[in-house]
Amino acid sequence: MTAKVLIVEDTESLALMYQSYLIPTGTTSHIANTGQAALDFLATHTPQLIILDIMLPDMNGMDILASLPDTDERPQVVVLTGHGSKELAVQAIRLGATDFLEKPIDAERFRVTVNNALKLKTLTEKVSSFQNQYSNGRFCQLVGSSPIMQSVYQIINSAAASKATVFITGESGTGKELCASAVHQCSPRAKAPFIALNCAAIPKDLIESEIFGHVKGAFTGATNNREGAAGQANGGTLFLDEICEMDLKLQSKLLRFIQTGTFQKVGSEKLESVDVRFVCATNRDPLLEVNEGRFREDLFYRLHVIPIVLPALRERGQDVIEIAEFLFKKISKEESKDYQGMAPTTRHYLVNYDWPGNVRQLENVVRNTVVLNESGWIEVTMLPQLQHGNIINTATQAPLSATPEPSKRARFSDGDAQIEPLWLAEKRYIEQAIAVANDNIPRAAAMLEVSPSTIYRKMKQWQEMSV
């Protein structure tokens, strides 16, 4: 879509010159010679960029800048300043202007500034669009607004547009198939088939036929030709769940299929070609499977292009409540029950339970509760199986990282009180988060609500201080 630019300049010759500067950028532009003309244009049009002169005959350009709505549709603004008006330009930046140019204006500098402002507008719109997708705690079929899940959503959103293979890992019940489906739904292949195949649920002697299909008479019981998952997913996405369960001999055929996009049905000599995007998942440690010889190393590196690590439910904080609310409403509707809400004690209990079965276990608990109870108000006594479950007690958890040696901790003392330096306390806390995240720095950063670069920088500082 062609970008729209509004040029607000009272000197007609200058306005026409700026308009000519924009010709190589491929934008469409409109000129307003007065402040009122600019406001009239903005009342019916939404440009991506405004080139705004501050000194106008009927009003100050700052009044136009101040009148712009503070919404996602707000255009970028580049302020034009004359001699001695830099102070006004600085004030304009504080009011939300993107940049300013001092007259007289060089053509090349003008175009660079305009292009930068339009790129910023495009980026802002993309970020806003993405944030709106999960601002209500939902992203496709995934539920949860915790920082660690927002990190997952960002990876999905970025990876979806490409054809790169996605490799999803996570404990059983964390929603790996929903994650794979989200990759498909956000991709250009969304209208094409999404075919899911569980490699652990199919006998080893039949899985090749399930993936590639077979021809009539290929083996006992093959009474008809059959299209496999690869053919069914043509143009769309093929999701191979529990990929580490696949037999080694079949792994070599899968590797060739991924590399060439071609395969042969069982019992056929004909080579068939399809266009498929691969998404794989496992609840095992794939590198351990490689080291133990149960998974081909070359296949692992072919599949492990964009890794997504789904966190366990116990790591997602208040997401438990969001998911429980969603499930109670959904299942109550399915069972024709009236859901009214959860008691505070119920919410507290759900958050502090460690959920070894993750979201799948939570869904079973919700369905059990809805089916066996008539009341729509969920009390903690109505929850099944949890009374004897494992409760997370953060107050008694021991630090997961090594405690600094006493000589470094007891820097200051007052009687029996010992105060350690703040950086040591921060170090211990960050190391604990890294341990909980299984040494995954981006996941630890998401849990701490900081950028990964912040953690890497602090780790470097700690190394320098320990030398």
Automatic annotation (TrEMBL):
<dbReference type="InterPro" id="IPR025943">
    <property type="entry name" value="Sigma_54_int_dom_ATP-bd_2"/>
</dbReference>
<dbReference type="GO" id="GO:0000160">
    <property type="term" value="P:phosphorelay signal transduction system"/>
</dbReference>
<dbReference type="Pfam" id="PF00072">
    <property type="entry name" value="Response_reg"/>
</dbReference>
<dbReference type="InterPro" id="IPR002078">
    <property type="entry name" value="Sigma_54_int"/>
</dbReference>
<dbReference type="Pfam" id="PF25601">
    <property type="entry name" value="AAA_lid_14"/>
</dbReference>
<dbReference type="GO" id="GO:0005524">
    <property type="term" value="F:ATP binding"/>
</dbReference>
<dbReference type="InterPro" id="IPR001789">
    <property type="entry name" value="Sig_transdc_resp-reg_receiver"/>
</dbReference>
<dbReference type="InterPro" id="IPR003593">
    <property type="entry name" value="AAA+_ATPase"/>
</dbReference>
<feature type="domain" description="Response regulatory">
    <location>
        <begin position="4"/>
        <end position="118"/>
    </location>
</feature>
<dbReference type="GO" id="GO:0006355">
    <property type="term" value="P:regulation of DNA-templated transcription"/>
</dbReference>
<dbReference type="InterPro" id="IPR009057">
    <property type="entry name" value="Homeodomain-like_sf"/>
</dbReference>
<dbReference type="InterPro" id="IPR002197">
    <property type="entry name" value="HTH_Fis"/>
</dbReference>
<dbReference type="InterPro" id="IPR058031">
    <property type="entry name" value="AAA_lid_NorR"/>
</dbReference>
<keyword id="KW-0804">Transcription</keyword>
<dbReference type="InterPro" id="IPR011006">
    <property type="entry name" value="CheY-like_superfamily"/>
</dbReference>
<dbReference type="Pfam" id="PF00158">
    <property type="entry name" value="Sigma54_activat"/>
</dbReference>
<feature type="modified residue" description="4-aspartylphosphate">
    <location>
        <position position="53"/>
    </location>
</feature>
<keyword id="KW-0597">Phosphoprotein</keyword>
<keyword id="KW-0238">DNA-binding</keyword>
<protein>
    <submittedName>
        <fullName>Sigma-54-dependent Fis family transcriptional regulator</fullName>
    </submittedName>
</protein>
<dbReference type="Pfam" id="PF02954">
    <property type="entry name" value="HTH_8"/>
</dbReference>
<dbReference type="InterPro" id="IPR025944">
    <property type="entry name" value="Sigma_54_int_dom_CS"/>
</dbReference>
<dbReference type="InterPro" id="IPR027417">
    <property type="entry name" value="P-loop_NTPase"/>
</dbReference>
<keyword id="KW-0547">Nucleotide-binding</keyword>
<feature type="domain" description="Sigma-54 factor interaction">
    <location>
        <begin position="142"/>
        <end position="371"/>
    </location>
</feature>
<keyword id="KW-0805">Transcription regulation</keyword>
<keyword id="KW-0067">ATP-binding</keyword>
<dbReference type="GO" id="GO:0043565">
    <property type="term" value="F:sequence-specific DNA binding"/>
</dbReference>
